[in-house]
Every structure is written in structure tokens, then in C-alpha cells.
Amino acid sequence: MSCPKSGRYCVIGAGAAGLAAAKSILDVGCDQLVVYEQTDQVGGTWVYTDSVGSDHHGLPIHGSMYSGLWTNLPKEVMGFPGYEMPTQRRSYIHSSEVLEFMKSYAGNYHVVDYVKFEHLVEQVKPVGDGQWEVIVKVLKNSESTTNTFDYVLVCNGHYFDPAIPNFPGKDAF
User: Fold this and answer.
1) Which residues form the signal peptide (predicted)?
2) Is residue 99 part of a domain?
3) Structural domain boundaries, residue 55
4) Helix ranges (DSSP H) in the chain
């Protein structure tokens, strides 16, 4: 299939939305694709860690999961079109099963081949002729690179950046 809108595609984030967006881009024959993921794996909010504070790159550790978390939606509504959750006896599944499903989806459709892990998008700005400049920090060596894309899909989710209220005595905690 020929790409209907030729050009370079950038997807920011390799959680559920980023994986689905990247697969859709690949499905229509567009393979000039880069997916930037700040962590070392796909899965977004479904990645569990018991670590807190900052990671080894000095970035805030995202943690909306807890070790015993089960879904509050039935798995039957959590799959992707054409790629449903595995058939099981129970409808509500452990968060680790959702993460494994995300990894399976990314591998099955070769989306993972387009992911640049440990790449932090620092800035996106328009640069004329409908293009976008994307400045990315390669976390392993702290070097920044600048790339130009025709299309940018922001799929980083709203759970990653902590929103901590300011209140008197906050520093005591």
C-alpha cells in the first residue's frame, strides 16, 4: 500500500495511544516513522515500578500503578481493533497482563522496531511549510538532536508529569 500522506511521522510516547497511532501509520504504508519513548519500554501508564523520586537520568519516576492493581474495566473493552485481549475465564485482569498485552501488540505489528527508547522530547515547534522541528535528548548520553517531521502525534498521556499542589508546610513532607 502506498502512503496517502507521504512525509516523516513522529509519535511521542509508546503507551496505548502511541502504539495505536504508530500501527495506524504503518497500516496505510507510511514507514518514515519514529516513535520517541522516554523510558526503556513500551506500555506507558501500565509499566509498574515500586521506585519513587527520580530515575537514573534524573527524571521524575512515573507511578500510577501499584503492585496489586487489577483493571476496573473488563478486558473485553480494552483491546485494539483487530487485536483483542487473550481469551481468559475472568474479565478483570492484573495490570501486568495489560502490560504484556501492550508489548505483544507492539511486537506483533513491528511497532517496536520504530521506537527510540530513552529519548526525551524536549521541544516541538512549527518551522514553516507545515513542518515541525522536534528536539530530542538521547538520555543515555545527554546529547540533543534536532529532527524535522511533517506530522507529529503527541501521545505522551496525561499521567506522566506530576501535578503537585502548592500548600503551606509542603516542604515538611
Assistant:
1) none
2) yes
3) 9-172
4) 16-27, 95-108
Our count of domains for the chain comes to 1
Predicted TM-score (pTM) of the model is 0.88
Residue 4 lies in a domain: no
Measured distance CA(140)–CA(12) in Å, rounded: 18
Q: What digits encode the pLDDT tens for the residues 107-122?
A: 999 999 999 999 999 9
DSSP string, 66-108: -TT-B-SS-GGGTSBTTBPPPP-S-SS-BHHHHHHHHHHHHHH
- Strands 33-37 and 9-12, by their bridges, are parallel
- CATH number, domain at 107? 3.50.50.60
Taking the CA atoms of 132, 149, 58 and 61 in sequence, report the sign of the dihedral they define.
positive
Could you tell me if residue 3 is inside a domain? no
- What three-state secondary structure class fits 65? coil
Residue with cell 502512503: 3
Q: d(Cα 80, Cα 98) in Å, to the nearest integer?
A: 12
The CA-to-CA distance between both ends of the chain, in Å, stands at 57
